[in-house]
Every structure is written in structure tokens, then in C-alpha cells.
Description:
Blueprint: H1 4-9, H2 11-18, H3 22-38, H4 64-77, H5 81-88, H6 92-112, H7 114-120
Helix pairs in contact: 3-6, 4-6, 5-6, 6-7
Amino acid sequence: MLNLERLLRDDRLLRALTGLNRKAFEELKLVFERELLEEEVPRRSQEQRRRAKGAGRKARLETVELKLIYILFYFKCYPTFDLAGILFDLDRSQANRWMHRCGSSASQSCASATICANALQKY
């Protein structure tokens, strides 16, 4: 698992992993969080719920920062889901689900955050 605190402290590591510096990351994080909260979480089963929302296993990518780092890393490097799973302590199927869940929010966030679009033009 990646050390999130070290990654957020070191601008060079953050840029190497995501392609964004700290300022651009913080600006994008605000927009991404808003987009992520507005998006409905898809259910895998069509059966009626047995538990209330929020019950069950807690997510590995708990924080908004970790979700954003994951999807930016995925878009920058396009690793296999096996590799992304190892780096972020996920199963490969869960790495796929996180990519699909966070991917649309990230692309909508990048469309509304100009600093992200300017930073991604370098690649």
C-alpha cells in the first residue's frame, strides 16, 4: 500500500505518480469530491437490500485524496488491474470497479478545473 502522507508531503513524488503538483491536486480535489458525492454508487445486485446503506465492508480507498491519486495514477500510467491492485492493496476486480466509479467523476472534474487541463496537456 502506498504511503499517502509521504506522497502528499513530497511534491516530486506526487508529480511522478499523478502528473500534478500539490496546488493543482488540491484544486482538483475540491471539484472531484463534489462530483464524487453527486454520483450515485452503482449496486452490483438488483435484489432488495438486506442491510442499510453504509453497512458492510468498508472501502480500501477511503479518502477522497486516495481515490483521486488512484484514478490519476491509472490515467497517467495505465497499469494492469493486477499491478494497480498490488500498489493500492486491492483485488484486481475491485481495482476495475474503482476505475469505473472514479473515472467519470475525474473526467468531469478535469473538464471544469482549468489547472488540470493545463497540467495534463504536458502528457
